[in-house]
TrEMBL record:
Single Gene Ontology MF annotation: GTP binding
PANTHER family attached to this UniProt entry: TRPL TRANSLOCATION DEFECT PROTEIN 14 (PTHR34932:SF1)
Protein name: NadR/Ttd14 AAA domain-containing protein
Gene3D superfamilies: Hypothetical Protein Pfu-838710-001
A Pfam match: AAA_28
Ranges where the NadR/Ttd14 AAA domain occurs: 7-186
Source species, domain of life: Bacteria
Amino acid sequence: MTGIVKKLVLTGGPCAGKTSALSFLEQNLRDRGWHVLVAPEIPTMLMQHGVHPNMLSTFQEHVLAMQVAFEKELSRAAEMLPGEKVVIIYDRGIMDQKVYLPNYAAFISLVEAQGLNVVEVRDGRYDGVFHLRTAAHGAEHAYGNATNAHRLESVEQARAVDKLTEEAWLGTPHLRIIPNKGTFADKLHHLLSEVLQALGEPVPIEFERKYTVRLTEAIPPIPSSVRVLITQDYLVATNPGVVERVRSRGQDATLLYYHTTKKPTGVCGESVEVERRISEREYLELLARKDPCRHTVVKERTCFVYRDQYFELDVFADTRLPHALLEIELLSEQQTVELPSFLDIIEEVTGDAAWSNFSIAHRLAQKD
């Protein structure tokens, strides 16, 4: 094939509607010209064949081994398919297993036994993660086991599993929460809109809102959050009007590298963005084109969910920058945002060029 295989994860709590959502996505994406491969939920598949968690203490090891093998073979098959629009949708991803292990250390050991790295799995393996909120949270009348006879959780247990599943994916760059607002059909269409945006249909337009946050002494601890360190450099432009950057993104001594181009559309807070994962070697080669007029931007990013919205809070390492920045990506310019009540938000700066990282890098360079 000549295109790029996109890999998406559909996850969520018990009775979230994943079975129906997978069918809905498959049909709608095929109608739009995508070749769709769907990976089954491995734990359910094992239980359907008589292998249950209470029978084997090594159940999660078998789940992960099968998950890794399945993903590998589906990726190989996808790369051999003709055409440019191929997407794999995984019914749950590797990070979901974190919920069913006694502690984080056990999860790390399980992942490393497969020759994998937790940060790499969470942040670099998939192009988008879509968390369907359990019906036990906002649609209690619909909670049941109609599509999964192996579902055993009560409403309260389902809510707890839903929250743990959400937390397992915190830190991934492209997490979207699909809540129970309106009808189930509304939920499916919300999911489809998010998926199409992740696939760049019709073009990869990014809508974001940005706010300055006051730093009094330190940002208060945010429960259920993940922090990553980002180092960002801008490159000398090769195309007029296009901003080009490279970024390293790390946690626990693991670094991932990205190359991004952004072209503003002229609408406030909207740009066409194309991001791709690159190797460390390519990252270092691209850094040779670093713009000498722009300082390296280093920031600690805290990722968290508030009222079904995925926020990123950036605190800059350079103390000459007096405020933090809160950002959220949206589906459209008209989408409303409910801001976190525990942050001291100063004002919205969406579309304010002075608060773009591109401009911040320039200001810092002038102060050197």
